[in-house]
Each structure stands twice: as C-alpha cells, then as structure tokens.
Amino acid sequence: MTEQTATDQTQTKAVRDVGVVIQESESNRPVIEAIEADNPGCTVMHTPGLVRITAPGRIVINQETVEEKVGREWETHEFQMAIVSYFGNIQEWDDDEIVIAWDH
C-alpha cells in the first residue's frame, strides 16, 4: 500500500451513526427534547408511536437536561422504560448521564 492510498483511506473513513428508538408518549417527550438539546446535529424521525434519534459517533443523555425539560427529578434508570431499541454500545450509564457510542 502506498502512502497516498493509506492517507486516502484514513480521510474517507466515516463516523458511524449511533441511535436510539424511544416510545413516543407524553412522558417521553421531554426526554426526546433533552436529547435533541444536548446532541446538536442529531436527526430525529417521528413514526407512529416511535421516535428514532441518530447522531454521528455518539449520543449523550444528561440527567440535568432531562430534569429541566421534565420539571422534576429524573433518574437515568427511568430511561429503560422509554427505549425500544438502540444501536451502538452503551459506554456509560451512571447517575448523571448515559452515553451511547461505538467502541471503535
């Protein structure tokens, strides 16, 4: 492989999207709004009963932002009741945030 070929492959390597599918409901709308606010550049697609959010590289769900949108205390474990599926890996899930990203 030539040096130019190696450079071309590095430059064309795309960032893989990650995503989460959330059940659309009145209680989940603030969570969706918080994800949109904390992840500029994410794409939100509404389908009947579901909302699919994708972003290049990673999605972060911040407890503080969700609490601002919900107007009450919110614990990250509540996110389990909202999600239908996700793609990527859950790299972090603690009391303050959830991070979905690929390991590589």
Give a summary of the structure in a few sentences:
With 104 residues, the protein is of the alpha+beta class.
Care to describe what's here?
There is one protein chain. With 104 residues, the protein is of the alpha+beta class. The protein has a single domain (15-101), classed as Monooxygenase component MmoB/DmpM (Phenol Hydroxylase P2 Protein, Alpha-Beta Complex). The protein contains 3 helices and 7 strands, in the order H-E-H-E-E-E-H-E-E-E. It has helices spanning 3-12, 29-38, 63-70, and strands spanning 17-23, 43-47, 50-56, 58-62, 83-87, 89-93, 97-101. Strands 2-3-1-5 form a 4-stranded antiparallel β-sheet, with helices on one face. Strand 2 and strand 3 (50-56) form a beta hairpin. The longest helix is centred in the first third of the chain and has 10 residues, at 3-12. It is globular, with a radius of gyration of 16 Å.
CATH class: Alpha Beta
Residue share in helices? 25-40%
Strand content: 35-45%
H/E topology pattern: HEHEEEHEEE
Secondary-structure arrangement, i.e. CATH architecture: Alpha-Beta Complex
Point out poorly predicted stretches: none
Radius of gyration: 16 Å
Distance between the termini: 23 Å
Classify the oligomer. single chain
- The class by helix and strand makeup works out as alpha+beta
Write down the domain tally.
1
Instruction: Outline the biggest β-sheet.
Output: 4 strands, antiparallel
Looking at the structure, the CATH topology is Phenol Hydroxylase P2 Protein
**How many beta-strand runs?**
7
What number is the mean pLDDT?
A: 90
Per DSSP, the total helix count is 3
